[in-house]
Design a protein that fits this description.
Blueprint lengths: L3 E4 L5 H17 L3 H16 L7 E7 L2 E10 L5 E9 L8 H15 L4 E7 L3 H9 L3 E10 L2 E11 L10
Parallel strand pairs: 4-5
Antiparallel strand pairs: 1-2, 2-3, 3-4, 5-7, 6-7
Helix pairs in contact: 1-2
């Protein structure tokens, strides 16, 4: 994956992430501004409670353009973290950007001592779910919900970080 660079967010990037995710999910899935409110809240919480020893975010760039992002945030339970807001621009999909972002998030979670990494997604996001499966996450629970203007199936995924590096073989 030549030309891919992962970096920390710069001024303006967090607003860009909210904007791009909303634009993409509205175009691809017809999701409403309810989704924008959700992601804006996640980003706001990240900024308000940011602990550089436990939290992180990465911006993926190719040829100087932002093509994706992912966040690592503390979970509600000590020792647990959450992978949040993974997204990849259409033109960068299939180039390994999503996998690189998830691998980086997992590596950092292990490095800072988290025991478990969890995430919430929706079943319609097939490419992301395939990345999670390849990286060793297991589906824990599914539940139907009506959000973002649609009937969806929410999914909770989990990765036990104490199992060593299971992602290397995948």
């Amino acid at each position: 994956m030549s030309g891919l660079r992962l970096r920390a967010p710069a001024p303006g990037d967090l607003g860009w992430i909210i904007h791009r995710q909303m634009v993409l999910y509205a175009a691809e899935y017809g999701w409403t501004q309810e989704f924008e409110g959700l992601i804006a809240g996640i980003v706001a919480d990240f900024v308000k409670s940011f602990d550089p020893d436990k939290d992180a975010a990465w911006i993926a760039e190719m040829d100087g353009r932002i093509v994706g992002s992912v966040f690592l945030v503390r979970g509600e339970t000590p020792g647990n973290a959450k992978l949040r807001l993974l997204y990849v621009e259409r033109e960068a999909r299939g180039a390994g950007v999503g996998a690189a972002l998830v691998e980086t998030c997992i590596a950092r979670a292990r490095e800072v001592g988290y025991r478990k990494l969890t995430l919430w997604t929706n079943s319609v996001l097939g490419a992301a779910r395939r990345i999670y499966e390849r990286k060793g996450f297991t589906l824990v629970e599914e539940e139907p919900h009506h959000s973002f203007g649609h009937d969806l199936i929410g999914q909770y995924w989990s990765l036990d970080l104490r199992d060593g590096d299971r992602t290397a073989a995948r």
